[in-house]
Structures are given as structure tokens and as C-alpha cells.
Amino acid sequence: NELKTKFEGEEFVGFVDSGPVLERDLARRAGLGWVGKNTCLIHPKVGSFFFLSEIYTSLDLTSEQKLQPDHCGTCTRCIEICPTGALSERSLDARKCISYLTIESKSVAPLDLRSKIGDWLFGCDLCQTVCPWNMKFFKGEITLENKERSREDLVSDLKFILSSSNKQLTKAFRDSSLSRASGNKLKRNALIVLGNKKLIELKELVVSYQTNAYFSELCEWTLKQLDA
To answer: pLDDT by residue (tens digit) across 85-108?
Structure first.
């Protein structure tokens, strides 16, 4: 609105991960960083843990920026740590990406990928965490699984998700990034984590979902993991 006041008759539309905009490529062309082997835009001073925002405008902009050189070198940490092998050099197979499988995908993860999801209930980002350009900002142990949570905390979290209605989950997570996944998606993810971590104390909750068409096959898989 301020820009419209300053430049009368011109149009301005802002985006922050909120529209079908090729943000990463635009940012690269604007000289804000290079596209790393993890397929993320990397800035030499702040790494890759940031949101890209942009303003589309009718103004005639002619300035050109110097492109950032590639600083990945021979490093392949992001490729090596990916639990599902979704990454090859500067290429991501979203069908194998844990972030896609637990947030965006509407279907249940394929059988061969479920065990590789481990205890990642929502997202992953290991390929960013191990990047040397992010390591200097990260404090803690980097592992294939999120081991910061105790078994008791994990049981409590999954019990809450599986015993709540979708409406209750929407209300509980409306101010967090978890709101990006619907109640059914969170429950789907919870059943996978539950099976991977063999949380036998939640078996009755798994059984209660068997009559739901969306969860029936997954419940069967989860129960097999619990009984294995």
C-alpha cells in the first residue's frame, strides 16, 4: 500500500511462500544465493533456513544483479544423509521426500518408504541441517531420527493426535506450521511413527481406526510392526 502511494498508478502484489511463484530461481537471478545440491537457495551469510518473499510490480525495473558463485564444491552431506534417497545432485524426487510425504501428499506413503520415515511426524529438513552453510547456526546432535524427544513425550504427542477430532487438531495447531497438514494427514503420520517406534501402549488407538477406509490398510501395516 505504501508503494502504491509512492508510485501512483502502479501495481504491487506480495508473496511469501503463498503463491505459484518460482521464488528460488528469481532469488538466484537477483544475486541472493546459489542453488545447492539439496535444491535449496543458499546464502553465504545466513545459509538456507529462511523464507523467500517477493513483490510483483508493474514498475519498469532494469537493474541487474551479479550472480552468486556456487560454493557447494565437492560436499555431498545433504545427499548422503537423506533417509529415503530422494536427493541426487541438485535434483529432488519429491515422491520420496519425507517433508512431501508428511505435509503435502494426500495419500499414505508407499510401503517401501514407511520405515524410512522413522519418527518424523511432520517434515524433515536433514538435507538443510547438515549443510556446512547452516551448521554454524545449529546446536545439537544431527541424526537420522529426531532423538530429542523421549519415548514418553512421543507417546503423549501421538496419543493426543489420534484421540482428537480433526476439528480439535485444527484448533490446537492453527497458529503453527502443523496447520499445513489436515487432521487426517497428522493422524496418518502418527500411525506410521507409532509403528516405526513400536509404541505398543497405543495399540488400542490403532485398532479404533481400522474401520476408517482411509486408514484401514495403514492400520494393518502398523499393527504388523507392533506385533513383529
So the answer is: 999 988 999 999 999 999 999 999
Separation between Cα atoms, residue 114 and residue 221, nearest integer Å: 10
pLDDT beyond 90 at 203:
yes
Q: Is 17 a catalytic residue?
A: yes
- If we measure between CA atoms, which residue out of 179, 189, 181 comes closest to residue 209? 189
CB burial readout 73-100, b (16+ within 10 A) else e? eeeebbbebbbbebbeeeebeeebbbbb
Query: Model's pTM, two decimal places?
Result: 0.86
C-alpha cell belonging to residue 113: 518408504
Q: Which of 17, 60, 112, 175 is catalytic?
A: 17
108: nearest Cα among 224, 213, 227: 213
**What CA–CA distance (Å, rounded) separates 119 from 176?**
19
| Per-residue cell: 146 | 529426531
